[in-house]
Design brief:
The two termini are 30 Å apart. This protein is mainly α. It has 12 helices and 2 strands. It has a two-stranded antiparallel ribbon. The protein has 3 domains: 77 residues, Orthogonal Bundle (Arc Repressor Mutant, subunit A), CATH 1.10.10.10; 54 residues; 112 residues, no CATH class.
């Protein structure tokens, strides 16, 4: 981030907020704030960071480890014991912010296209309202047939979804199809925002993300779907265990419960 930003506040950056939620984003912001010294490193203890954010020391430790694993922070003193570690913020956040801005612009373009399409449909219905009853009935039947055709065109098994996403012509279409998969497999949850889905697809690879979406569909999480999936994928990478193992799921649930307790407290 630019050096000219004042350091008398803790930044909470939108890309990290969407990727990790408020606790993870604020932990990064606090470390970044303490790193705005001449040597560019944060020397504050976990207790100091926790006190400033009104969360537990263990929560700070958990999120700093995640941020280090994901390349946002670097532990300059990994072998130090019984003494505060020193952390440095990497340049990755600048790249993520740039990508976030670009994806938001793409998302805005998609939204405008949707608005234009809705406007066109409204005009057709308005024209139909001024016509005969037969014309209105014909348009209504055609709309229903189009909706049924779209629903029927979506895959019904994992192989079909995998091929459907793989055959996307560009990254934007890939993200759109992943969001369609979320809507179809998790009807009780709102689909993730376009930019959020794009970042997670980039981190996990679209094929891997589709695999995890399919795996968790029978027992969907109650919170942030993509955060749940990322945590499960991270646990799988560290332990080599099945991503749906009880141990991994319990670890994710404990982290979510701790976050909820911190927010409500």
């Amino acid at each position: 981030m630019p050096d000219s930003i004042p350091t008398n506040f803790t930044p909470c950056l939108d890309p990290l907020l969407q990727e990790y939620g408020p606790i993870g984003a604020c932990v990064y912001g606090r470390v970044w704030r303490y790193a705005q010294m001449k040597d560019g490193v944060c020397k504050a203890s976990h207790d100091t960071i926790a006190e400033g954010l009104n969360i537990t020391r263990r929560t700070v430790w958990t999120w700093i480890k995640i941020l280090c694993d994901d390349g946002y922070l670097v532990d300059q003193t990994p072998n130090v014991t019984n003494h505060p570690h020193e952390y440095r913020a990497t340049d990755k956040i600048s790249t993520v912010i740039e990508l976030h801005t670009t994806e938001n612009e793409m998302h805005s373009t998609d939204d405008q296209c949707d608005l234009n399409a809705q406007h066109g449909v409204q005009e057709m219905h308005s024209h139909c309202a001024n016509g005969s009853h037969e014309e209105r009935e014909s348009l209504s039947n055609r709309d229903q047939d189009q909706e049924s055709a779209t629903a029927d065109a979506l895959p019904t098994n994992f192989q079909g979804w995998h091929l459907y996403i793989k055959e996307a012509e560009n990254r934007g279409q890939t993200i759109h199809r992943l969001r369609e998969m979320c809507k179809a497999l998790y009807p009780g949850l709102d689909p993730p925002e376009y930019a959020y889905m794009g970042r997670v697809a980039k981190r996990l690879h679209s094929g891997r993300l589709a695999d995890l979406l399919w795996q968790f569909a029978p027992h969907p999480p109650t919170g942030d779907l993509l955060a749940y999936i990322q945590a499960a994928a991270k646990g799988n990478g560290r332990t080599g265990a099945d991503t749906s193992s009880n141990a991994t799921i319990r670890a994710i649930e404990r982290l979510q419960e701790e976050q909820n307790a911190n927010i409500s407290g």
